[in-house]
Amino acid sequence: MIVLLFVALVLLAHWYLWYRLVRRTTGRGWLRKALTWALVVLLAVLVTTFVGTRMGLESWVAWPGYIWLAVMFYLTVILLVLEIPRAVVSVFLRRRERVPEPEPVAVMAGAGAPAVPEAAIVTPAPMSRRIFLERTTAAVAGVSALGTVGYGMTSALGDPVIERVGITLPKLDPRLGGLRFAVVSDIHLGPLTGIGHTERIVRMINGLEADVVAIVGDLVDGSVAQLGALARPLKNLESRYGAYFVTGNHEYFTAEGPGEWIEELGELGVRSLRNERVEIKHQGAVLDLAGVNDVGGAASGDAPDFAKALGGRDTSRSTVLLAHQPIQVEQAARHGVDLQLSGHTHGGQIAPFNLVVGLQQPVVSGLATVDGVQVYVTRGAGFWGPPVRVGSPPEITMLELRS
């Protein structure tokens, strides 16, 4: 159902762009035909991208399609925003438009030459105010969309922002004060990311000298066979008490499921918390670090199990839970969790999607309290789909616990 809705929206967007950028700005002729075919080709490129990336084709297939997807989105949004001012100006111009007939002018070929007959004179028709308005609107939308996508690509492909956050847990043992977590999520190793993407993230995390590294889901967008080489730099992660991982919804998108990645990460020195918890012993005190599977695992019999991960523990200790989606805090609250670390949202990734994400998740990004549980949602260090981030730069979080 979601796929059909997406296809319908893409087709509708292309029709709308044809109507606004081609039909309303050109007359009958070769230019209109050329622009129409250009949109058809771009639609075909987009289809090839979605089909090709799922068949494991090379990254060069994905780049043009995903970039056009972003440009198409912003062209559509900007043109829709411009509909009202364009309509107001159009009504104003329609009332004023009075194009006078051009006066014929006799042209002399030279001294003594007879004047050219008036019937033979061809005067180019002036551009109508309507066409001028439509072309101006199209130009504004085009420049704005390209500028926005260009900025967004620079953000998405650049270094993640280091967000330093201090969180006070009321019942935290004072000896655990200052315990530091490097939190990263949504790395999204895939057809548009090279090994340099992973190496940079590992280098930046190591520079934080954290006590614990938490990878909160959506590490990959493919199988180990396709992307295993891109994940190998994770073996170089450095921290005092180890690196931990919980599944995100994208780990369940491959036919192989998350099992092969759990095994691969284990060989790279990253421990997966599969509805389980470990004790982090620091300066003679103990913190419970738990992790649950993503809700997307329910369909394949790998659902989150909060009772298994959190049951039977010493409730006098503080508990930090790794759970990919912020919405999982509803169950975390029932089990007395003090702090939940999540990702999934990308902070919206491409504004104004942050407004849509807020309809599904209780927290879009940053720190909030939900049902008495503090939740920190990182924006993620990668991107999904278009290599574009607007209004939500990539993030690695340096989180320090305070008593």
UniProtKB/TrEMBL annotation:
Asked if the record carries the keyword Membrane, the reply is yes
From the record, give the transmembrane residue ranges.
6-22, 34-53, 65-89
| Family matches, as Pfam families | Metallophos (PF00149)
Q: Where is the Calcineurin-like phosphoesterase domain?
A: 179-347
Sorted alphabetically, the keyword list is: Hydrolase, Membrane, Metal-binding, Transmembrane, Transmembrane helix
Family matches, as InterPro entries: Calcineurin-like_PHP, Metallo-depent_PP-like, Metallophosphoesterase_sf
Carries keyword Transport? no
Q: What is this protein called?
A: Metallophosphoesterase
Q: State the species of origin.
A: Nonomuraea insulae
